[in-house]
Amino acid sequence: MTTTSPFSRVTVLGLGVLGAQIALQTAAHGVQVTGYDIDDAALQVGRGRLDAFAQAAAGEVADGDAYRSAPDSIRLTSDLADAVREADLVIEAVPERLELKRDVWAEVGAAAPASTVFATNSSSLLPSAIADASGRPDRFLALHFANHIWRQNTAEIMGTPATDTAVADSVEAFAVAIGMVPIRLHKEQAGYVLNSLLIPFLSAAAQLLVKGVATPETIDVTWRTATGAPAGPFQIYDVVGLRTAYAIASADPRAEAWASYLKEHYLDKGLLGVESGEGFYRYR
Questions:
Q1: How confident is residue 1, by pLDDT bands cut at 50, 70 and 90?
Q2: What is the CATH number of the domain that holds 51?
Q3: Per-residue pLDDT, 284
């Protein structure tokens, strides 16, 4: 059954690993999409991600042509005010730093129409820590997606005590319209449902590595073999992106050793995971 999106114009801020997938998924379902990133170089990299994800998705879904053609329909810009000027919904997927997100939302709030709905895709920050920066806390919530969005198609919807229920309802309808399974949270929870389960699992694997107990390959093989899971924790880290893993670890005093390990052995060498072609593993 096809559901019409309540938003006809959607802007995605940040064309990183998840931002590019969100833009692609939305455009593939017939919604007009604008993609924003900080400069022309970032937009060029983002366009490459859109094309790569489109090819990957096209090989896994029934309507592959919709994904193949989606990148060409997405308008790209490095002008933030221009990006949000006519948006019905703005989805933010910029790096996981609170002050950066607040600064971005302050600019968006000043430029977007009064009717625009605001959503952060933050994986670990509470929307209530960001909402007031937008100037419209009643129209602000979190909308969180998983990697490989076309296949692992959850959309976690988490408002704050100030979020208008009608706004959350409209975002839930949007999620359904772009082929997602909406997961409605009843109260704020850092990490939502998915990452509240996933992060402790990944952190346990990180500690095994930092302590020298076993290699990433051994840890992954153990998990896959013992549970039947398709991927081990370090394969998941590579998909999520090591910059995101580092940002989350840096914000947790208990993960200081892990953050240092990531920086020294991976980030400082340009090894970012799947997005750079190499992380814990190498990719074509």
A1: very low
A2: 3.40.50.720
A3: 79
> Is position 190 within any domain?
no
Helix 40-58 × helix 64-73 angle, to 10°: 170
Please check whether residue 282 lies inside any domain of the structure. Answer: no
**Mean local confidence (pLDDT), 240-249:** 91
- Written as one letter, the residue type at 179 is G
Q: What would the DSSP string read from start to end of 88-129?
A: SEEEE---S-HHHHHHHHHHHHHHS-TT-EEEE--SSS-GGG
Burial per residue of 263-278, b for 16 or more beta-carbon CB atoms within 10 angstroms, e otherwise: eeebbeeebbbbbbeb
Within this chain, do residues 131 and 160 fall inside the same structural domain, yes or no? yes
* DSSP state letter for 79: -
Separation CA 178–CA 23 (nearest Å): 10
pLDDT of residue 248: 87
Boundary of a domain, candidates 184, 208, 242: 184
Kindly state whether residue 31 falls inside one of the protein's structural domains: yes
Sheet bearing 75-77, strands edge to edge: 75-77, 32-36, 9-13, 89-92, 117-120, 140-145, 154-159, 181-184
Query: Residue 13's beta-bridge partner residues?
Result: 36, 92
Residue 80 placed within a domain: yes
The token pair that represents 160 in the structure block: 């704050």
Distance CA 204, CA 49 (A): 30
Distance CA 249, CA 80 (A): 29
Q: How far is CA 278 from the centre of its chain?
A: 20
Pick the closest to residue 27 from 57, 66, 1 (CA basis).
Answer: 66
Q: What is the reported pTM?
A: 0.84
Q: Which domain holds residue 135?
A: 9-184
